[in-house]
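Sequence and structure are no longer studied apart. To make this concrete, we show below a single chain and its fold as tokens.
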Amino acid sequence: MKLFDEHIVLRFALLFACFLFAAFVPEILNLSGSYFGFVPYFTAIFFVAYISLFYKFPTAATRRKMRNDVIIPTTVGGEPVRDYQKDLNDQYELHQMMIDVSQEGFWTFNVPTGKVYWSNRVAELLGVKGGLEDSLSALKSYVMEKDWNKFKEEVNKSLVEGRNFSQTLRLSSPSKNGPSNIVVSGRPQMDSENRPIRVIGSISQPVNRSDSEREKYFYAYQDALTGVYNRKFFLEKLKIDVELAAQKPDYFFGVALLDIDSFGAINASYSINFGDNVLRVISERIKASCGENDVVARIGPDVFAVILHDIQGTDVRDNLLSIVKQIHAKVKAPIQLDGQELYISVSMAVVVNSDVDCVEDVMASANAVLRNLKKTGSHGGIQFVTGGIRDKAMKLYKLEYEIRRAIQAKEFVLMYQPIVDIGNSDKIVGFEALVRWNNSEQGIISPAEFIPLAEETGLIVPMGALILKMACVQTKKWVDMGYTDIRVAVNFSARQFAMESMVDDVKRVLAETNLNPRNLKLEITEYTATCEVEKAADIMRKLSNMGLQISIDDFGTGYSSLSYLKHLPVHTLKMDKSFVDHVADDEEDAAFARMVIGIAKSLHLELIAEGVETAEQLEFLRREGCHHIQGFYFSMPLTPGDALEYMKEHYAGTVQPAADAH
């Protein structure tokens, strides 16, 4: 319905009606004798006159049509009204853009009208300049007649049966750089009566199976950075060679592992991109030094592996050494990159197949050699696997597997060694939590046998997390029994301490166990505290602010400056056992012990002497003013149950069970 604000005639008609009502209606209604009857009458006339003079009717500018029969306002409740037509246009443009950038062509066939839409990509595949006619017969001029007839049959069957189809068509005049065949696929769309109304399809180049297989092979078996084979291919090929050697006693091959020494320093000094280029250069040099039948692979971030075949000569080891030396000399030659001359060092471990029995044997032996080269400082050398190294490697390989299994099976247990105050009637002030491995086959295993390997392999991180959780759970039990002042010390490895999540991990464990931080002390070695002083100081401050105490373990065994103690939030020093052993009979050790005691006193730090075993050692420490003692003289490490009994006899404070504390 259309409004009349723009017509003056409407306002004039309303005013004229008001005049007529005022002039004639009083007489018609006979209101002359009643003054009250005039009130509603004249009110109505006044209201109509006001509307005719002052009311502002809606105009065309204040409304908008979406459809001819619906009028909608520009805004509803202050919010703009969605422009659906614009949305449809945007969607159409987006879909058109997606079709145009696709590597496949698209087409739609309107069955009732016979009209066909071809995307621009279809014309490119056919080598047509400009567009195609809007009919299926547009394809006929570009494909072989026999293929065209088969295509028409497929389309007709598809429309009758309502099924999808796909047909390969040979082009009659393929373009120079275009395909010689195309694949036309289609899917019919049916209406509610199951009659075809349109066909939607695509046109693409046929897939080259050899190229596809080659691409899959590349992603499965080749290193993306260097182009050589990856670890997966190397292990599979090594397994084949090992099995072949087991069947043929005269079949020999060698395996060489190349570890780039201090590669992390290259990334840190230059850039990661520079380091990647170094790896590419090294991989090319290795390939250039190897034969056609040899296998070169990158099996680690900075580790390459080579399987050497076609070893000639009566002495396999000598011949293999000659080949390995050539590779080694080629790889370690100066590298020219980005105007920089880089000298690198490469350590090599070499294995002859006659010295090993399986793939695991090969890898364990070679890795053991590389570890040995790094430990002994023999960087840049070449070493063959010998019988002793092989046996040791397999032992370490088995031990590493057992440690992983033990972590999962929770075979690690904690023992607690008391720390007593000889200045307070030998009362206990805390415990140090010491890990033991309760192996299902061998029984209790000393940490000296598995901690070094756990450190080297990184298994110390999950093991350390398990130890921390176990210690906090046990300490919380003792606190709830009333031993509220007891403090348990837990050792943290350098790897654990360096983790970015270290502080958050400690917070989480404390929250999970509901343990007060003041009941926990963290022990780190002197080396860990001074390796990266600024980072260590930041971590230690965060831990200290939580209420934890920090202890420097094995103090005196490092060679760092003592000035770091002034800047680190350290609470306790632990004098290493090696300096306590001979304080009663060696003046040098006694002098050093006095120095450590003096340092602790001058810095107002708590000092604990470790490894106290004799009365003479104890009296010396008492005389020099070291009162906190840990060692076999008072107690060996105890089980949680025995530790509780020890506390019952030697606890300094008042035992107040949790139930009585409220």
User: Anything to note?
Assistant: The chain has a mean pLDDT of 81. The longest strand covers residues 427-439. The chain has 23 helices and 26 strands.
